[in-house]
């Protein structure tokens, strides 16, 4: 399980994850576009709720020393939306286990 380094900024954590995960630039660009497009259509209160969810994940990471991720309950590639009702906070271990299962489905 990866530990959150208390001295790191969230931006540094994200950059380290991108570097270590092998998440490709093309895949990143597609995912980022999908999130931005759906985010632009959200009501202001939904945008605020999303920020609160990400802040809570960061708070949990700092408080526990265990990295927490905001995860799409229904993955974007399966038609899930970037919406507060489709977001959940998972520990690093839970997140990577879920990602492995999703990648198997994506490849089949």
List keywords for this structure.
mainly alpha; 108 residues; two-stranded antiparallel ribbon
What does this structure look like?
The chain has 108 residues and is mainly alpha-helical. The chain has one domain (10-107). 60% of the residues lie in helices and 9% in strands. The chain contains 4 helices and 2 strands, in the order H-H-H-E-E-H. The chain has helices spanning 10-21, 25-40, 44-64, 92-107, and strands at 68-72, 87-91. The protein has a two-stranded antiparallel sheet with strand order 1-2. The longest helix is centred in the middle third of the chain and has 21 residues, at 44-64. It is globular and about 35 Å long. The two termini are 27 Å apart.
Mean pLDDT across the residues is 84
Taking the sheet with the most strands, its summary is: 2 strands, antiparallel
Radius of gyration: 14 Å
Structural class call reads mainly alpha
Number of domains: 1
What is the overall silhouette? globular
Per-chain topology:
Layout: H1 10-21, H2 25-40, H3 44-64, E1 68-72, E2 87-91, H4 92-107
Antiparallel strand pairs: 1-2
Short description:
This protein has 108 residues and is mainly alpha-helical. It is built from 4 helices and 2 strands; from the N terminus they run αααββα.
């Amino acid at each position: 399980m990866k530990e959150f380094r208390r001295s790191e900024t969230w931006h540094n954590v994200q950059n380290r994850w991108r570097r270590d995960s092998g998440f490709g630039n093309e895949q990143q660009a597609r995912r980022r576009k999908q999130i931005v497009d759906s985010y632009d259509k959200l009501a202001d209160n939904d945008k605020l709720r999303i920020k609160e969810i990400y802040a809570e994940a960061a708070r949990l990471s700092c408080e526990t020393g265990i990295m927490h991720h905001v995860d799409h309950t229904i993955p974007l590639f399966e038609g899930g939306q970037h919406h507060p009702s489709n977001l959940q906070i998972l520990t690093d271990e839970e997140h990577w286990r879920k990602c492995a299962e999703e990648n198997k489905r994506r490849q089949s």
